[in-house]
Write a structure and sequence with these properties.
Helices cover 72% and strands 0% of the residues. Helix 1 packs antiparallel against helix 2. The two termini are 19 Å apart.
């Protein structure tokens, strides 16, 4: 028996669609962070400039940190999207089961 509450499946579909868009954006950000932010060690100076190696190492460390943050966000968004899809499917299945239950009157219920 229903308590009169309904779930708006189209709203869940919209959330899933937006999360998929975010995943696409995160893929682009990951590609950019990984391949478009690399700076060769020579850009910081020659080996005669002693701090050049430290600068390059610091840059590489931050680059890796940013890549890991993006991967973490991607995983979080993916997990949320997967969970939302599962919830949406369960609500949809329950709604179909409820409709079938209403259309099939139980035997002896005509009294």
């Amino acid at each position: 028996m229903s308590n009169g509450m309904r779930v708006d499946l189209s709203a869940l579909d919209e959330v899933i669609r937006k999360l998929n868009g975010l995943l696409s954006d995160m893929d682009k950000a990951n590609t950019k962070a990984k391949y478009e932010t690399d700076i060769p060690s020579t850009a910081f100076g020659s080996m005669k400039f002693l701090e050049s190696n430290e600068l390059h190492a610091a840059h590489q460390k931050q680059k890796t940190r940013i890549e890991n943050i993006i991967k973490g966000l991607h995983q979080l968004i993916d997990d949320f999207g997967t969970s939302t899809s599962k919830v949406r499917d369960k609500y949809s299945n329950q709604e179909q089961a409820n409709q079938q239950g209403v259309s099939e009157a139980p035997k002896g219920a005509a009294n």
